[in-house]
């Protein structure tokens, strides 16, 4: 027999409650499927150029360059201050107050490791060239010559050559306008600082070739003993076999910036057909991949020409940034509220998982609990309406 309705509720009222529950359930599921959930992502990118703002810890400094970065040549333009121990034009510790036209170049017959420490947030732009050079531009970061936004030190090693242009040296109050300078052998560190004007750092990193292939000649009997599988890496030549072995790549090779830097406002650029000028200031990629360590989605492959948009205020962790074959490869960790990709800036779709997918991955028991409670409430109303009979 059908259940009798309570005297305080009519059949129409119960139908209204049931309809409201159904509508609320549909609306809730729709919202969960449409609204995205901020989640941790690992973004691996290849691109032509990049700009980002590096954030040093509060009341502290941070090393900007990778500790293993070795260069043969570097050039500063637009530093505020310079100090070095010279043998010419006169022996002594020289200083110089610089302007935006002053250029200081350092070269050596042996590799050396420059240091750059940031004392304030700095906006950087890194532009590699196909020749293997790199230009790093610092926007002004405030401060003053006696309170710089960044400082750099270079310890002379080997036969150093110092190149100066538009630099007036001062040694013990004596001025040497635009003079030729020579470093003192075994001198103390060369010191530069800046931050009040736009600065360019050009350098030539020393990068070992990667992905080389070793050629080995193997006798047939040795090939059988080694159980070499047939394939494109094993080529028969006469009575011998040629084995092509590709050496593994070093993930640290070509590293430019220190790992685990905090950055924001990453902008990704592309080159045009012109050699040295004109950039489309859009997030254009040469390729890459977005991974979801939490398992919410399968990795998303980013083809060449893909545009990627990250919110400017999203705080990122820079795992690595290196230069490979004239391109920049960088790896970022982030937990953005939005991450869009597409073939054009006007045709971008959300990459992050929906709230429903995130809950299904990380809170599956909660999802089943809510669904069970909802179904129990609906079943109870159906019984009250007499649409479902209770089994005897």
What about the largest sheet?
14 strands, antiparallel
Could you say which structural class the secondary elements and strand pairing correspond to?
A: alpha+beta
Number of domains: 4
Task: Give the strand content.
Answer: 35-45%
What is the terminal separation in angstroms?
10 Å
Number of strands: 29
Provide the residue-averaged pLDDT: 76
Segments where pLDDT lies below 50 for 5+ residues? Answer: 273-281
Number of helices: 4
> What Rg do the Cα atoms give?
32 Å
- Helix fraction, binned, reads 10-25%
Basic shape = elongated
Structure description:
- Helix 1 (11-34) packs antiparallel against helix 4 and helix 3 crosses helix 4 (364-384).
- This protein has four helices and 29 strands.
- It folds into four domains: 11-35 and 354-384; 41-58 and 256-348, no CATH class; 71-205, no CATH class; 213-246, no CATH class.
- Strands 1, 2, 4, 7, 9, 10, 12, 17, 21, 22, 23, 24, 26 and 27 form a 14-stranded antiparallel sheet that branches.
- A hairpin with a 3-residue loop joins strand 5 and strand 6 (92-97).
- With 392 residues, the chain is of the alpha+beta class.
- The longest helix is centred in the N-terminal third of the chain and has 24 residues, at 11-34.
- The protein starts with 10 loop residues before the first helix and ends in an 8-residue tail after the last helix.
- Helix content is 15%, strand content 41%.
- Residues 273-281 have low confidence and may be disordered.
